[in-house]
Amino acid sequence: MPNNANARYHDTVNAIAQYIYDNVEQPITLADLADKFSVSKYHLNRIFFAHTGMNLGEFVQRRRLEFGYSLLATQTMSVVDVAVRVGYDSHAAFSRAFSKLFEIEPNQVKQHNAPEFALAKLIKQPERKIIQGEILTLPAQKLLGLHGQGFDQQSYFAVAQQLYQGIADALSLSDGYDFSQHQLYGISIDNPWRVEQSQSRFFAGIAESSITNNAKQEQFSLEEYLMPAGLWARFEHKGSYQTMWQTILNIYASWFSENDYQLRDSAIVQHYVNDVTTTPADELITHIYVPLAKSR
Q1: Taking the chain (296 residues) in consecutive chunks of 10 residues, what is each chunk's mean pLDDT?
Q2: Which of 31, 50, 53, 91 is deepest in the core (most CB within 10 A)?
Q3: Is residue 124 in a domain?
């Protein structure tokens, strides 16, 4: 597949995902999406599955249930009212789908009795390629950086640019970052599909150990974030930061279904391996770290 076509398909998938997020309370069908994005239903579903590991119908259902989870956790709404709001005809149908996805009952979320890091599983099991990960035991690592918020165009890239510029200014890095020395990390603190995306929190930081002694006097203006010691799964994403959510979705949706682990935290850690200012977007490498609890 030519790179320009691949980039165009990535953009289309991003646009579809954002449309579904913005219109989750409205009826959404594959035919509607095909008409809106001027692509045949077959082709639209094929490219979406190729980039996310998930069929469009499953993704729409998943988004509705994620939104329902957020309403149950944050609003004083009954389960029946939430079911209707997210497009289900009955309490029973909503509860069955919700329990299948999250492996908990809706009332557990409403009563704040759900596991701290409830993980959405696959709804269906079509044949798909399972993303490969490496299990690591890592020591604690302190990061210095800045907090921000804003998930836009399926990425934290815009807010991350501002935050990393602020870190560079604080550390007097007039020539920018040296990717062979500095270790740049981004932390997705919130799941942007369960909160208002403009309020979704992000931490941009660099490893404290990579800061030279000359720069350490400037650290007082930066905030700390501790990556805790423990078990992690590491995955590799190759390509634009705007498409990283697609890899993360595949990790959540398919890798966990094939491996007997639970989440230890909901924060996803991203290590940006190469320089975004000099590396073509399709050659960018990001290591994604997911914190794991012991296997069940």
Answers
A1: 62 90 90 91 88 86 91 89 92 91 88 72 60 92 95 90 93 85 91 86 92 58 92 93 86 79 86 92 93 76
A2: 53
A3: no
Residues 6+ apart with CB under 8 A from 113: 107
Quote the longest CA-to-CA distance of the chain: 63
Q: What does pTM read for this prediction?
A: 0.84
Residues 103 and 37 reside in one and the same domain: yes
Q: In this structure, which amino acid lies at residue 28?
A: I
H helix intervals, the chain: 3-22, 30-36, 41-52, 56-74, 79-85, 91-102, 106-110, 157-170, 244-250, 256-258
Q: Which of 41, 92, 87 minimizes the C-alpha distance to 66?
A: 87
- Kindly list the distances between the CA atom of residue 268 and the CA atoms of 116, 219, 263, 265, 281, in Å, as whole numbers in the listed order: 15, 24, 10, 8, 21
Q: How far apart are CA 269 and CA 287, in angstroms?
A: 8
Enter the tokens of residue 152: 């836009």
The per-residue pLDDT for 127 is 60
Q: Look at residue 223 and tell me if it is in a domain.
A: yes
Q: How far apart are the first and last CA of the chain?
A: 40
Domain that holds residue 284: 134-292
| Distance (Å) of CA 222 to CA 37, 112, 145, 147, 180 | 43, 34, 5, 9, 22
Do residues 204 and 288 both lie within one domain? Answer: yes
Domain boundary among 110, 145, 177: 110
List the structure tokens of 262: 């639970």
Number of domains composing the chain: 2
